[in-house]
Amino acid sequence: MAFDGGFLHTVTNELQQAIDSHVDKIYQPARDVLVLTLRKKGFVKRLVLSAASGTARVHFTEQKYDNPDTPPMFCMLARKIFSSARLTNIEQKGLERVIEFTFDTTNEMGDRISPKIVCELIGNSSNIILVADDGKIYDAVHRSDIEKSDRLILSGATYKYPDSQNKINILTADLDFVANKILNQKTQELSQAFLQTLEGVSPLVCRELANLAGENVYDNIVSVLQILKQNINYGEFVMLLNSDGTPTDFCYMPIKQYGGLYSEKQFKTPSQLLDFFYFERENAARIHKASSDITKLLSNLIARANRRMAVRQKELNDNRDREDLRIKGELIKANLYAIKPGSVVARVQNYYDENLSMIEIPLDPALSPSQNATKYFKDYKKSCAAVTSLGALIENDVREIEYLESVSESLSRCKTLSDIAEIREELSLSGYVKQTAKRQPRKKTQSQFDEYTSQEGYKILVGKNNLQNDYITCTLASKGDMWFHTKNIHGSHVVVFCGGQELSDETIKQAASLAAKNSKAATSSNVPVDYTPIKYVKKPNGAKAGMVIYTTNKTIFVTPEDQL
Fold it and tell me: Under CATH, domain 5-140 is a member of which superfamily?
């Protein structure tokens, strides 16, 4: 990611508006994340400080973080030192990824002190350190190992800045001098020369500078450095997006090196960009972590059901020849006079065969010929009963696998922790997850669903899991409303609340597109979607959540796309 020293410089400039504000609240939503609410007349902002590996950054945030019920000890210490403190200075050390916040407050004795919060945003070594005005460390979110670390980051130790790489700060250096340094680097790659020379510039930016320089390096390098300097001071805040809209990278200058491979999204401030980018990444990580146990459970359940069904199917196939058992019993019974007691095989004529061929029938020598016939008849009846029960069991396995796959598909579309909680509740109600304690049933409100409005003004609800699907279809919808679902594909129930009114082609296409987009076929094209009035949608007795049958339907083929 391009959160380099140059980007931190743009953030530092933006944060200057918080000078003279007071610390109103301090939270620690995660082990290495601190959130400060800063307040002054006409100004209220939340400042997030993150030292998490891969997501280390500092910026204003509009996001609301889930805080633990009991504040961690580091958070309690920060509150003790910085609560109500006035922010007096925000300073970046050159173009290094180190920023410090200086405050003015009083200690327990009433003496005025100037403690600092130092954020080192250096990859896996990122840290948030509370430092007293005499340079002693109060504490840090990541304490150092005395035996393995060159810098001592422990309570009571003297704080020292990370070692400098002795690179050139382009904001203060002469550009001709910098250009000569770059051209004298012993490397064939111009981007590497930029990286080895310039302080606080990421590989992404270095590749872009090399791309801008083109072939006439000697003529263009100074102008390229001027562009870099201009963007660091007054840059454009650009995010790169994949073809599916997923945030990939960001920078304080336009990125043209990829051609049309990525699209760009611009933001007015660096904080807005960082807030969007990292919230999306962290939310995806939180969702993945929170759903990992359910994902594993569903995978195991589906695999187990498939194995069980395969065993039953094999047993059913083995009983396909059950009629042979009856025939052998009849042939033994018809030839009792010719079979000697104690025989291990009976060679008789098969009068069930049009050619009247001879057949050898295995016998149990411990049984009489009559008892052998009875045994074959019993095996025949047992096989018939097995076929009947196995057919029903296999049907149950098929329904269970379909249900579990529908839950898995719903889980893959979860965007919030509450969505995952609903999936967990559904599995609990279905008996797949044990309830650890009795809980009050969760109230179902329309705000839980994804809601849209058609061009004709009709409300459209989209269920996000099987419980919501049931509630929308079987409780909220009336007989005249229109129901949509992908044909033979796991997905959401979509209902257009039209009260029996005839829908336009545009509304039908919109609702069908929503059904396709919220299904397992979300990335496909020409997805078949069935639709029919609610009065033709029925839920069989005993059916699992989200399982319905429907008739009198029509089918439309659509390509999933964003709606409204």
Answer: ibrinogen binding protein from staphylococcus aureus domain (2.30.310.10)
The residue assigned the tokens 């083109």 is 214
Beta strands 237-241 and 263-267, pairing class: antiparallel
Residue 27 pairs in a beta bridge with: 35
CA dist., res. 179 & res. 68, Å (int): 51
Most confident stretch, 19-23, 322-326, 376-380: 19-23
pLDDT at residue 1, rounded to an integer: 56
Is residue 383 within 8 Å of residue 442, measured between CB atoms? no
What is the pLDDT confidence band of residue 542, given thresholds at 50, 70 and 90?
A: confident
Residue 484 β-bridge partners: 494, 531
Q: How far is CA 344 from CA 266, 362, 366, 367, in A?
A: 87, 6, 9, 10
Tokens for 193, please give them. 């020369």
Q: What pLDDT digit, counting tens, does each position of 421-479 carry?
A: 889 888 988 888 876 555 554 444 444 788 999 988 999 999 999 999 999 999 999 99
By three-state DSSP, how is residue 528 classified? strand
Neighbours of 289 (CB within 10 A): 11
Is pLDDT above 90 for 61?
Answer: yes
- Whole-angstrom Cα distance, residue 202 to residue 208? 10
Mean pLDDT score of the chain, rounded to an integer? 89
Residue 281's closest CA among 563, 14, 3?
3
User: In this structure, what token pair is assigned to residue 410?
Assistant: 């719903």
Helix (H, G, I), strand (E, B) or coil at 482: strand
Q: Quote the tokens at residue 346.
A: 């009976």
The residues facing 482 across adjacent strands are 496, 533
Q: Which two tokens stand for residue 249?
A: 């990278």
Both tokens of 162, joined, read 């990370």
